[in-house]
Design brief:
This protein is an alpha+beta fold. The chain is built from twelve helices and eleven strands. It starts with a helix and ends in a 16-residue tail after the last strand.
Length: 443
């Protein structure tokens, strides 16, 4: 009896230690899964949250449900007053959320809520990226871990009970045997207690009825243990394969999302770019002019526009062909880009006309800059036509101005520049000092 008690105590201690190791491993896996989910959401939800694309947000949240530890995921506005998207796993028996319960809110002691703040994507202005655009809340459950621990505990108790039964049988029949077979059997039992049993060999029969029955019982227990170990190993391999497949699928989703963000960025750039010259198109210029007029109405900030028209452009097309005319426009745009300031916005207004929006620039400075730009254009050697000139019309913002009003005044100044001999600067208004050489003129 003392031997049975000692053996049972040893096996129980071994089972408890193995249960403790399993708990530590499951808790570490739970924390790794939580860290991976939160890190992945912080990266994958930045772009859709910035674009407020609910479909992609929901897809990103649904990808977290591949982890059995995740039961619910939500994306809130930064003040948590609005839910952008939410997903939840189908409620298991007895754990359905209460009617009317708010999403992603703790309602029992089984779950853990984890939060991650979402910031704008990397391509957004760094100052703006310091401000949160949303918050993701993930509900993690320990239920799966508890089930695994309970199953492992039942298995451990079963193993100890089975070994105890085998010990009782062996001791009962061993009293009638010699000590050598008993010692051999005892050694096999200790080896079984000190290992997982999957590497042990079955005991050979001794030709003695009493011992052979005990040995058969031992071998039956050993086969059952090996079967249990094999099934558990196979289940772990399937679980690892499933986790790997889910990680690969999640990585593919992230790659697809990144590709979509890049395509959208390219489409946005194309939508506001002139395809021939590479500068902004008329649509984007109208947006910039609208914003500048709004600022001028709010804080009284000044700005000016310069309308640039290539002189005798029709004769270039008639003499050299339209391809040569296109090349002149490309080089003209490049020359203006080199001369403009960093705060200025250049675009092709139409045909051979370019529009330059000069921020924080009054009439006098605008005319001085236009004169410098005219000189730069007239001194450039164009690859097909040699020297070319341009006429420029300048207009500055006035009280109650509109886009049409400013463009009309700049166009009238440009017309006067053409009328008075081309290759000159005219200003749409009075009060501007005369310039040396080609002098600007007011109405």
């Amino acid at each position: 009896m003392l031997f049975i008690v000692a053996t049972t105590t040893t096996l129980g201690a071994f089972a408890v230690h193995r249960q403790w190791l399993l708990r530590q491993d499951l808790e570490q896996r739970f924390e790794r899964t939580r860290a991976e989910v939160l890190e992945g959401l912080a990266q994958s939800l930045a772009a859709p949250a910035w674009a407020l694309n609910v479909g992609i947000l929901r897809t990103g949240l649904e990808s977290t449900l591949i982890h059995p530890e995740v039961t619910e995921a939500c994306v809130f506005s930064p003040d948590r007053q609005e839910i952008y998207a939410e997903v939840r796993r189908a409620a298991s028996a007895g754990r359905a959320p209460a009617p009317g319960a708010p999403p992603c809110a703790a309602d029992n002691g089984h779950d853990v809520l984890a939060k991650v703040t979402i910031y704008p994507p990397d391509d957004i202005d760094p100052e703006r990226r310091k401000q949160a655009i949303g918050q993701a809340v993930i509900r993690f459950t320990h239920d799966n871990m508890q089930k695994t621990l309970r199953a492992a505990m039942v298995q451990g108790v079963t193993e100890v009970a089975a070994i105890d039964v085998a010990l009782v049988l062996l001791l009962t029949f061993g009293l009638r045997m010699v000590f050598r077979p008993l010692g051999h059997l005892r050694g096999a039992l200790f080896e079984l207690a000190s290992s997982h049993g999957d590497h042990l060999d079955e005991l050979a029969r001794l030709g003695r009825t009493e011992f052979d029955s005990v040995i058969d019982g031992f071998n039956l227990v050993l086969r059952r243990l090996k079967l249990i170990i094999a099934q558990r190993t196979e289940a772990e391999m399937r679980a690892r394969a499933a986790i790997q497949a889910s990680n690969e699928a999640f990585a593919q989703i992230q790659a697809t999302q990144a590709e979509l963000v890049e395509k959208n960025r390219q489409l946005e750039a194309l939508s506001k770019t002139d395809q021939l010259t590479g500068v902004f198109n008329r649509r984007h210029l109208n947006e910039v002019l609208g914003s500048a007029l709004e600022r001028a109405r709010c804080d009284g900030s000044a700005f000016s526009i310069i309308l640039v028209d290539v002189d005798r452009f029709k004769s270039v097309n008639d003499t050299h062909g339209h391809q040569a005319g296109d090349q002149v426009l490309i080089e003209m745009a490049a020359c203006i880009l080199e001369a403009k300031r960093a705060t200025d916005t250049l675009g092709r207004w139409g045909g051979e006309e370019f529009l330059l929006i000069c921020a924080d620039t009054g009439p006098q400075d605008a005319v001085l800059f236009a004169q410098a730009l005219r000189n730069a254009l007239s001194e450039r050697d164009f690859s097909v036509t040699g020297r070319m000139t341009a006429s420029l019309g300048v207009a500055s913002v006035q009280d109650g101005d509109t886009i049409h009003g400013m463009i009309s005044r700049a166009d009238e100044a440009l017309y006067r520049s053409k009328k008075h001999g081309r290759n000159r600067v005219e200003y749409a208004g009075g009060g501007v000092e005369a310039m040396p050489g080609e002098e600007p003129r007011g109405y």
